[in-house]
Amino acid sequence: MAELVLSTLDRGVLTLTFNRPESLNAWTDAMGRRYFDLLAEAEADPEVRAVVVTGAGKGFCAGADFKTLTAIQAGSYEEKPDPRPATFPTTLGKPVIAAVNGACAGLGMVHALVCDLVLTAEEAKWTTAFARRGLIAEYGLSWVLPRIMGQQRAMDVLLSGRVFTGREAYELGLANRAVPGESLLEQAVSYARELAAHSSPASMAVIKRQLWHDWDVTLEASAKAATQEMAASFRRPDFAEGVASFLERRPPNFPPL
């Protein structure tokens, strides 16, 4: 049986590829379990500095597999879902970058937007799809979308379930970049390599935690916590190396996370 998620590591960047191209990488519990296992391994691997997630073939992830949905509807679904939530990538200390190469629908859109950064092919097709399937905004998307794109735009894409392109996804604020599909993975990996080569793993882990969690706190609480985090950063070897590499005009050699 083919690997459900392909994994390659090169120069500090782990590329994970959903590998069910015959179904536009529709999500199954088995594929999700493998994906999360690989993310957990990446978190523990000092060689991994950043992760890029993409899809094989013409899709990123076309949402939940219809065989799964049919079985759930019939009451015959027996697989146990992975206990780790869809938001699992946000708990990693390492940056996770989605490279949305094609169809990105429903649950697939969730898995793109719980990555820390999103690059998309201009021609990729995006849709929430939920309202057109008799479903609701799943797995925290009702929390994520308004914060990324604003309340009215979130209402639009959720209530209508309309299909829009990667170019519009960028214009709506869902992606950091929209690029020609043929250069998407190259650009995503290149960006990840920049992070791997020049950004402190410890700094990225703290910044990632701040950004994902500070939405829930007041400005005063955020500033107070940041003061404590800054004091801690002064004591890390990353700070000494960051200053030394700048003064010596050389690339930094930060320790692994």
Structural key phrases:
six-stranded mixed β-sheet, alpha/beta, four-stranded mixed β-sheet, 257 residues, globular
Topology readout:
Blueprint (H helix, E strand, L loop, with lengths): L4 E6 L2 E6 L10 H16 L5 E6 L3 E3 L4 H9 L21 E5 L2 E3 L1 H7 L3 E5 L3 E3 L13 H9 L1 H10 L3 E2 H6 L5 E3 L4 H15 L2 H13 L5 H16 L2 H11 L10
Parallel strand pairs: 2-3, 3-5, 4-6, 5-7, 6-8, 7-10
Antiparallel strand pairs: 1-2, 8-9
Helix pairs in contact: 4-5, 8-9
Summarize the structure.
The protein is an alpha/beta fold and 257 residues long. It has 10 helices and 10 strands.
Account of the 3D structure:
The structure is a single chain. With 257 residues, this protein is an alpha/beta fold. Helices cover 44% and strands 16% of the residues. The chain is built from ten helices and ten strands. It has helices at 29-44, 66-74, 107-113, 141-149, 151-160, 166-171, 184-198, 201-213, 219-234, 237-247, and strands spanning 5-10, 13-18, 50-55, 59-61, 96-100, 103-105, 117-121, 125-127, 164-165, 177-179. It has a six-stranded mixed β-sheet with strand order 1-2-3-5-7-10, sandwiched between helices. A four-stranded mixed β-sheet has the order 4-6-8-9. Helix 1 links the parallel strand 2 and strand 3 (50-55). Helix 4 crosses helix 5. The two termini are 34 Å apart. The mean pLDDT is 94.
Shape field: globular
What gyration radius follows from the Cα positions, in whole Å? 19 Å
In the sheet with the most strands, the strands line up as: 1-2-3-5-7-10
Q: How many helical stretches?
A: 10
Estimate the strand proportion: 15-25%
